Amino acid sequence: KDDLVFLDLFDKYGCKVTTVVDETLTGAKILEFAEDYSDKLIYISGPEPMVESLYDQLKDHAPNDQLKTDYFPGYQTI
Questions:
Q1: Which of 36, 40, 48, 72 is most buried per CB count within 10 Å?
Q2: Helix count (H) and strand count (E) of the chain?
Q3: Element (DSSP H or E) covering residue 72
Q4: Rounded to 5°, angle at Cα 22 from 16 and 24
Q5: Of 18, 8, 7, 77, nearest to 44 (Cα)?
Q6: What is the tally of structural domains in the chain?
């Protein structure tokens, strides 16, 4: 966890953060972590191909205004 950026900032503002580093992350897994996601913001950040893939998996399950994406340009491999 020491290598993950901004965790201290998320903690400061009381955000629930789930990090996945040792398994493949899927849209289904995100929805499982989010539990009742009807009123939750889902923030996806990482390499553009990963973010686009996860967004595509989630867009039919959560309204667009609940899905926020952030790309790390230049990182093409997942």
A1: 48
A2: 3, 2
A3: strand 67-72
A4: 85
A5: 18
A6: 1
Q: Which residues of 12-48 are buried (b: 16+ CB within 10 A; e: fewer)?
A: eeeeeeeeeeeeebebeebeeebeebeeeebebebbb
pTM over 0.85: no
Q: Is residue 45 part of a domain?
A: yes
Within-domain flag for 2: no
- Is residue 77 assigned to a domain? no
Question: Could you read off the pLDDT of 47-76 as tens digits, one per residue?
Answer: 888 999 999 999 999 889 999 999 877 766
pLDDT higher for 77 or 73? 73
76 token code pair: 């093409």
